[in-house]
């Protein structure tokens, strides 16, 4: 598995974002259940969100992200960055599997 940071940046106004929020959260829930997403949350100020994800490849993750209603309805742009952790806090032993 590889680790990725996904940055969503809203390209529509917040009224439109909020109309699809529940569908987006359902998608997020499914991704957590399938062990693709490890951590996520909105940015402050509310310009988008950030996801820490894991997948076998960038291609696999992109296929998953393209199912997000925010992507399908062109509500947000997605930037995907692969990274290799070199250190982690001792409370986060889960990440030792990536070292």
Note the overall shape. globular
Structural domain count: 1
Give me the Rg, rounded: 14 Å
CATH class: Alpha Beta
Number of strands: 4
User: How confident is the prediction overall: mean pLDDT?
Assistant: 95
CATH fold title: Alpha-Beta Plaits
Q: Spatial order of the strands in the main sheet?
A: 2-3-1-4
The largest sheet is: 4 strands, antiparallel
Which percent range fits the helix content? 25-40%
End-to-end span in angstroms?
11 Å
Any low-confidence stretches, pLDDT <50, length ≥5?
Answer: none
At CATH level 2, the architecture is: 2-Layer Sandwich
Q: What's the helix count?
A: 4
Sequence of secondary-structure elements: EHHEEHHE
The share of residues in extended strands comes to 25-35%
SS-derived structural category:
alpha+beta
List the helices and strands and how they pair.
Blueprint: E1 2-10, H1 14-19, H2 21-33, E2 37-42, E3 48-55, H3 58-65, H4 69-72, E4 76-83
Antiparallel strand pairs: 1-3, 1-4, 2-3
What does it look like?
- With 99 residues, the chain is α+β, with helices and mostly antiparallel strands.
- The protein has one domain (2-98): Alpha-Beta Plaits (2-Layer Sandwich), CATH 3.30.70.1060.
- The chain is built from four helices and four strands.
- The protein has helices at residues 14-19, 21-33, 58-65, 69-72; strands at residues 2-10, 37-42, 48-55, 76-83.
- Strands 2-3-1-4 form a four-stranded antiparallel beta sheet.
- A hairpin with a 5-residue loop joins strand 2 (37-42) and strand 3 (48-55).
- It is globular, with a radius of gyration of 14 Å.
- The termini are close together.
- The model has no long low-confidence stretch (mean pLDDT 95).
């Amino acid at each position: 598995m590889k680790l990725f940071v996904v940055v969503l940046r809203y390209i529509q106004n917040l009224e439109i974002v909020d109309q699809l929020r529940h569908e987006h959260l359902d998608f997020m829930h499914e991704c957590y259940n399938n062990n693709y997403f490890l951590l996520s949350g909105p940015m402050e100020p509310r310009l988008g969100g950030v996801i820490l994800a894991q997948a076998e490849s960038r291609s696999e993750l992109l296929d998953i992200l393209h199912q997000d209603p925010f992507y399908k309805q062109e509500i947000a742009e997605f930037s995907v960055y692969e990274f290799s952790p070199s250190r982690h806090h001792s409370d986060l032993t889960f990440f030792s599997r990536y070292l």
